[in-house]
Amino acid sequence: MHEHFKTERSATTLAAVALAIAMGGYSSQPALAMDEATLEAARQEGSVVIYSASPSELLDSLTKAFNAKYPGITAEYYRAGSSQVYERLIAEQDANRVNGDIIHVSDVGTIAELKEAGRLVPYASSEYAAYDPQYVDPDKTWFVARAHFLNIAYNAGQVSDADAPKSLRDLADPKFNGKVGIMDVRLAGGAYTWQYAVWKLYGPEFFAEMAKNEPKLFPGHGPINDRIITGELLVGVSLNYMTDEAILEKGAPIKALFPTDGAPMIWSPVGIVAKAPHPNAAKVMMDFLASPEGQQIFNSQYSYSLHPAVKPREGMVPLSDIKVLDMPLADMIAQQNTVQTTVRSAWGY
Asked: Which UniProt keywords apply (predicted)?
């Protein structure tokens, strides 16, 4: 699901979004195929700019493929963290000097907040018809361009496969005392997703149990991954794209598995911004990103496409083999204060 909630206002926004999804609310435009007039208008605009939190290597591949497919429209990008691209877009829109056309962030909270504030515009791409409706905003202001999973990682040299934690609950096993890495909810995206997951599965008492293991808190998944590889940590909560890359490309001494009690999914949505300088080129780009061709490029970076025709990269666990943890958006929002208060009390911060 989403990685974090930026503000109380964001939580309110997401509650409205969740209610609309549950009730089938919001009227949506019918999907239309890209017409020649839009393509010609896009060529007249000449370029399209993506503001994205994705890795530069992925954005290089996407823009290169788009430029080859649509001569006359040059795709460019600005890459930074989700909060940075969010803040940049807000500042540009407020100053009426918008440079970006599309925003792609690492959590649905940010994109929903932008929608609620009228900072996104709808576009009913014909490509959306292939997706499960839950992955496309009812108003067609965004769709989930890629997904990742929180998984369990462990040091391959110090933890045997037999002794490795198999479930989220196993992270509280005393044999990992002082050697478990968890994201700090005050700093890291994905932290509350994990907290909600274990709270839902095992109740508030789990956090007191986990506290006995003296978990180490980190500002992101990267530091956790790095410290598992060096052996400073034995186990931790990571992201599949980090562990897949470390294992399949770098041969690092790290292994990973999807929790037997369910793996939380993190959405990474994309949408067209209001006041975009190249609105027609933005539509062409959205079609491309949602198409099997664009989705296959996303998957080249160890993402999971939610397009049914696009398979994961070789070596990755098939999506159908992952037990996806049910993470109801409305409940996740409603329980946030309760869960985080419980964690702060148990962990002493």
From this structure: Signal
